[in-house]
Every structure is written in C-alpha cells, then in structure tokens.
Predict the 3D structure of the following.
Amino acid sequence: MKQVVSPVISNDEIMPGGYLMWLDCPQIASVAVPGQFVMVLCRRRDGDVPLLRRPLSVHRVNGGRLALLYAVVGQGTQWLAERKTGDGIDILGPLGNNFTINVDSKKLLLVAGGMGIAPTVALADYAIDRGYITTLLIGCGSASYMYPAGQLDRAVSVGLNVVVATEDGSMGRKGMVTAALADLSPAADQIYACGPLPMYRAISGDIDMLGGKPTQVCLEQMMGCGWGVCYGCTVETENGLQKVCQDGPVFDIKDVLWNSVVDPVVGRI
Ligand SMILES: Cc1cc2nc3c(=O)[nH]c(=O)nc-3n(C[C@H](O)[C@H](O)[C@H](O)COP(=O)(O)OP(=O)(O)OC[C@H]3O[C@@H](n4cnc5c(N)ncnc54)[C@H](O)[C@@H]3O)c2cc1C
C-alpha cells in the first residue's frame, strides 16, 4: 500500500454524472489488480471536509497510468469532478483483495449493473489479454446512461464480447440485467457480478440465474479507513464477520449473508 499524490492527466464526464479520471500513478498502477480499490482524499490536504477518504475501484491501468470511473453522488465525488489536468490527487492503495480465476475456467461472464462497470472493465481487460473467452454484460436504465462503447474498442478488437441491456429497451436487450444473466450463465465457467445491492440480492435469491456457476461479487460498503483499522465496513458472512476493505471487496456470492448487509445507498438493511 502506497500513499501518493498523482497528477490528473484527464478528467472527463463520459456519461451523465459519471467521470473518467486518468492519473499518472506508476506506484499504484504497476501493482494494482482487478477488484482492488484506492482511497481518494477528496479535498485539499489543508481542507477539512470531507474528512474521510472515499473508496474508488481500479477501473483501468495502462502502463503507469491509473483510471478511476466515478459517479458524482455527494461532496467528495463533486470535488473530484472539479479537478483539472495537472492537479494533484492524494490516493492510498492498492487496497483489498481481487477477483480470482479458477485454473479450469476458460469462459468468463462479467456482469455490470450501473456504476458496477467501474471494477468490471479492469477485469475484462485483464481476462481478454490473457486469452479467456470473455463476455461483458452491461445493464443500466436507458441508453443515455450506458458506458460509452468507444471505451471498449481495444478490448472488443481482441475478442471481448459485449452484450447490453437497458430497462427501457432503448439499447440492446430490454429488461433487467438479471434476465440476460440467466440466458448467458449456462455458457460460462465462472461469473463475476458488480452492481448495487438489490442486484446482488436478486441474484443470490435465485440461484438458477447463475446456472450453478461459481460467482464472485464486488461488494460496496461505507468505509472509514480502507485498510482494516476501523471495522466500519464489516459484514456478516458464512465465515463470520469480515471486513469489506481487507477481506473483500470481492466475495463468493454464496458466502455473504445478504439479509444482514446494509445498503450504502439508502443506509439501511
Ligand atoms: C470498495 C469500494 C469501491 C467503490 N468503487 C466505486 C467506483 O469505482 N465508482 C464509484 O462511483 N463509486 C464507487 N464506490 C462508492 C463510492 O465510494 C461512493 O459513492 C463515494 O464514497 C461517495 O462519496 P461522496 O463524498 O461523493 O458522497 P457522500 O456525501 O459520502 O454520500 C452521498 C451519498 O452517496 C451514497 N454513497 C456513499 N457511500 C457509498 C458507497 N460506498 N457505495 C454506494 N453509495 C454510497 C449514499 O447514498 C450517500 O448518501 C465504491 C465503494 C467501495 C466501498
């Protein structure tokens, strides 16, 4: 884990309220792996709010550059959205565990709901570059909120299969991402899902949807420190209490006791 102040290379709104920030950060980019995250200080070092760093997933790495993809939802992410090229961002990472691929898996299905696309693209890049047959299923409310296809051009050119679903049918398949998941899971050896808590609850409550395939999820919880000190992100699992920041954020979907998990978006179970 390193703490570095990294210059912003670019910071663009690539979908409504969704920003892609590239940082020059070889110290973290060189060691980060898909599923990990960084804790970002979303204020000037001499400022006082927001006090706590904010967790953001590793979205992409390219040489010494690290990309974050974030939705503006509050004070911290709003501050981040206002940063310009050359500004320094204080980040701590990489943190947490990572996605794992079983030795006998060849065909991977990656499922991203909403901003769950952030960690999923890192895994898609990683998997396709190592020769896995990889399908990326992206779901969102409507076409105007879809992750821009151009961001995936390179991965598609080397074999990534992209399937999109929108709830209003304005792009790709009409309906929830979970319906498309049920159709695609039989062909996969392993599944990875990233999205909001209701998506995980829907999947975990309908095991047929996964076709019995091993499934990892990337869990979000409010967290104070990001490296195991404050216990603020603890969740109940089959293996006892676990810290999302240190034991996660990647968990086997079967291990999490979903009814006990607090939804960070609404702040209740
Ligand atoms: C391991 C991890 C990785 C994450 N990766 C990403 C990412 O790559 N991209 C991204 O956009 N977001 C990601 N998040 C969520 C992100 O950390 C929050 O959206 C962010 O902390 C909000 O900060 P804020 O100061 O802007 O909002 P705040 O003022 O702190 O909160 C405003 C509202 O945002 C929502 N919120 C706050 N924290 C979370 C949270 N942890 N998860 C979901 N909603 C939250 C709540 O509704 C809250 O009321 C991740 C969270 C975790 C735990």
